[in-house]
Amino acid sequence: MKILCVSDYVDPLIYNQNVKNSFSDIDLILCAGDLPMDYVDFIVTVFNKPTYFVFGNHDLKDYHFYHRDNRTLTEKSIHEMHDVSHAHGATYLGFKAFVNEALSYIDPQNGKPTPLLIAGVSGTRKYNNGLCQFSEFQMKTRLLRLVPRLIYNRIKYGRYLDIFMTHASPRHIHDHEDPCHIGFECFNWFIQRFKPTYMVHGHIHLYDLREERIGKYFDTTVVNAYAHCVIELPQKTSEKKDN
Hints:
The chain is of the alpha/beta class.
């Protein structure tokens, strides 16, 4: 299964009508936040593949469609919350866990097809009380709500999770020390405890090609999706090495 990951930047290598020629074997798209929804629309339309997205801390014009936040609700937006036209053809993964039976890959442990197990959360660390910003406690509370579904996955499929998608990064993995870009310590706890094959995040812009894009934390490969990158399930051997 080949997976296109995008975040934070409308990449001209993706945002063009010939993109499918360059990425012809993509099975799934992950949009890790801070992307205009018309860009997500374009990706869904051109690839016609399952697409999941989360919100970051910018480009939140559609945030009120998915979250009942008093700071964004108006009489018009309350009415629009019942209108499916905002769905963009992509599945919102914020604070949810899904089993996608339509997407499967061959489990290298037993050689049998297994469905994709995916979960995600939106947002960043709280730094100016804006929308989709959370304290460490608020984010961990939201992660704990995913636990019953993950335990069910473990019982039925023998593992908790394949992919955990966020906007912010874990603490001390790709993050920066300014208030906006500090990672969540609860993400470190989550990936250590539930062992997703991949954690895919955005938020950290890669301006220097020497900066690390792919790292390792316990059993999880942590991927910065800035602009775009491609990963695979099951992992290739070269993807499993520490960076």
